[in-house]
Amino acid sequence: MQELQHEAVNILIVEDNPHDAELMIRALKKNKLANELFVAEDGEEALDFVFNRGKFSEKQTHQLPKVIFLDLKLPKLNGLEVLKEIKSTPLTRSIPVIIVTSSREDPDIKAAYDLGANSYVVKPVNFEEFFQAMDKLGFYWLLINECSK
Questions:
Q1: Residue 35, C-beta contacts closer than 8 angstroms, at least 6 positions apart
Q2: Nearest CA among 1, 101, 84 for reference residue 46
Q3: Torsion of CA 59, 12, 43, 4, to 10 degrees
Q4: Rounded to an integer, what is the distance from CA 22 to the centroid of its chain?
């Protein structure tokens, strides 16, 4: 399932559930929104990828993702820890980070926004609704939203 494009990743998906990750990829590719993406299966891998460290230290380029879809409940480092590190560094602070999670807990929502999340989306349980939500998120964050260059 994991697609590895080191040269120009548009979207970083940080998701430990392979079914959710696959559905996200399918929704984004349906409208040709995600030609280049990378799926990190835990928080540590996501940060290694973003900051060119660990197994990604040999990457030839360091092009930052245009958007990050981040789950909160991840192995190794949770989504809030990942978000905190991304938003605390000038190099990566302006990358839009969209929380895509099953948690509707107000403390999670508040913590995510306090740490700099750009949006917070609760994963719809229904397959079709989840697919449509990801399609709309990809469309907005990659085509409508203007990012800093």
A1: 10
A2: 84
A3: -50
A4: 13
**Spatial distance between the Cα atoms of 42 and 81, rounded to a whole number of angstroms:** 11
101 pLDDT tier (thresholds 50, 70, 90): very high
Alpha-carbon gap, residue 26 to 32, rounded angstroms = 10
Which amino acid is present at 5?
Q
Residue 41 CB burial class (10 angstroms; 0-12, 13-18, ≥19): buried
Determine the pLDDT at residue 147. Answer: 74
pLDDT of residue 9: 59
Beta carbons of 35 and 10 less than 8 angstroms apart: yes
Strand order in 97-101's β-sheet?
37-40, 11-14, 67-70, 97-101, 119-122
**How many contiguous H segments (helices) and E segments (strands) does the chain have?**
5, 5
Q: Is the pLDDT at 6 greater than 70, yes or no?
A: no
